[in-house]
Amino acid sequence: MVGRGHLFHKSFRNRILPHQKICNFITMLPIIFLIQLLISLVQHELSGKAVGISDGDTFTLLTSDHVQYKIRLHGIDCPEKKQDFGNRARQALSTLLLGKDIRVQIKGKDRYGRTVGMVYANAENINEQMLIQGMAWHYLKYDQDARWSSLEASARKLKNGLWSQQDPMAPWEWRKAKKTHSLK
Known about the structure:
Layout: H1 2-14, H2 18-43, E1 45-55, E2 58-63, E3 68-73, E4 76-77, H3 86-97, E5 102-109, E6 115-121, E7 124-125, H4 126-132, E8 137-138, H5 146-158, H6 171-183
Parallel strand pairs: 3-6
Antiparallel strand pairs: 1-2, 1-5, 2-3, 4-8, 5-6, 6-7
């Protein structure tokens, strides 16, 4: 009987009781939270090199682990390829990105599955540079930063880039007109 009680007591000692499980879980919560925070931070930023420029506001990023992402610059809209200044906007983005270390702060995905983000090349904000050079409109539908509206207004006043034209058509208006025209 004594031996049996000793075995019972030893196995009881090795058991984790329900209240101990709760205590263990509670002590692990900060660690779990920290791990989730780190994972979310990692997932909200990409880095790599530009390997292709689609147009003035879209490019392909190749990461160090050889994964390609189609990146859409947040908060700006550049002329379409077949639109006036479309090729010049594409060339401007190419000049700003190619051969440089690129970092993308991810804002989300667009309806085409592209990663939308703030793009930096050697610590320079590329989204803002496209506005300053007059190669893009501030896309108020997706971004309401008053400073960016000011950058566009300054480029207009200085007649930089596309603002040197008499009456440039915003890309969203051009796309709408093209769609309406093609339906007739």
